Amino acid sequence: MQHSARAGRRSTVRAARRLAVLVPLVCALGALVSCSKQEEALTTPCGLVIDGSGSAAAAKEGFDSEAKLKDTLGGFLTDQKCGTLDFAPVTRSSRSSSCRQDEVDLDPPHDATTDQKTQRADAQRDAAVAALAELKCARTQNGSDVWGALTRIGEAVPTGGPTPKLLVVSDFDQADPEFHLSRQDITTKTARAKVIDSLVDKRGMPGIKGMDVFPVGLGMQYKAKPSEAADFDSFWTEALEGRAKAHVDDKYRG
């Protein structure tokens, strides 16, 4: 009886192995058996800039970058059909920061039998874990060099294909050891142009030309100060669209 049972199990295993070999071949040939439908390839290169400065803390006066990251990242990756995600931190010196997460492939290699929905969901979870790790690291370095972070993400995302999409989770309060936006006069277009000139002259231009920038939290510190909020918005619009030649989209701004 035991010999018969073992023989039966071996027969079942052999049959399963033959099926495992045959199904992909049959799927590839488009014949006889129903295979899982393959999803449209995800090819959009995406980038995430995440602010670890003090103003991004979960405090009353902060805008809580972690909460906003959790609220927006998944929707952003899905909406924009992101195929890859690169990272850049906002710290006191963003370009030279040691905080660096590896690019996440959001549409991993697969074959005709792969459950792509599950595979992609797993990849998005990996991206979320990496994003939180990036934020945790950025918080240890403090500061708010937004301009440097934009430069860094512009260098990281692949170009030459679909338009890159950048999610920037920050209040955009540029404040590094050499420059504090809050101390600058940005009340007129002429004054704002001079401030932008100083940033470009000292730091160069972020390589984000033609990219779509989705800010999250921009200017939240000015919610109770409408006139200052308007000047702040104008400054970043003129810097990002007027100078860097990117396109700003407020879809996830909140």
Automatic annotation (TrEMBL):
Residues 100-121 have a biased composition (Basic and acidic residues). Residues 96-121 are annotated as: Disordered. It comes from the Bacteria. PROSITE patterns: PROKAR_LIPOPROTEIN. This is Lipoprotein.
